[in-house]
Design a protein that fits this description.
It is built from five helices and six strands; from the N terminus they run αααααββββββ. It has a six-stranded antiparallel β-sheet, with helices on one face. The chain starts with a helix and ends with a strand.
């Protein structure tokens, strides 16, 4: 379950990354989501990811060999849901790997390699994504 403290942490985190430039393996959509996942799951998956790739092609190779988002989240007590709530992870399968977003106050947040931190509404696109929620 996401606590008030977790939501405050997430709000602060999004404010902090707003001013940080995109960097593969350090400040990208998946490292942001993994940092959040680690916070609410009391895990340390980010230690296995951070700094392991430095370009798009390295990210593709890394995530090909890395356990799937779904297997990691299942192990940590996250479950797939059909509605969005604060703190949920939105996983969208791209051509090369899964892109992760964090849902907060009606928006999905992610880090875009050209724009940095971005927020957007998913609307009808949510049907093409997996929504995962921490139920511990």
């Amino acid at each position: 379950m996401i606590t008030i403290s977790d939501q405050m942490f997430l709000s602060r985190l999004l404010c902090e990354v707003r001013n940080q430039p995109f960097a593969w393996g350090m400040n990208d959509c998946n490292t942001l989501a993994i940092l959040w996942m680690d916070r609410v799951s009391n895990s340390d998956v980010l230690l296995s990811v951070e700094g392991q790739y430095h370009s798009f092609s390295e990210a593709v190779k890394f995530y090909k060999d890395f356990p799937s988002w779904r297997s990691i989240l299942d192990t940590l007590g996250w479950e797939q849901v059909t509605t969005l709530r604060n703190g949920d992870l939105i996983l969208r399968q791209g051509k090369s790997f899964v892109f992760a977003h964090i849902f907060l106050e009606g928006l999905g947040y992610s880090i875009d390699r050209h724009k940095g931190l971005v927020a957007g509404r998913f609307g009808g696109q949510i049907d093409k994504c997996e929504v995962m929620r921490c139920l511990r």
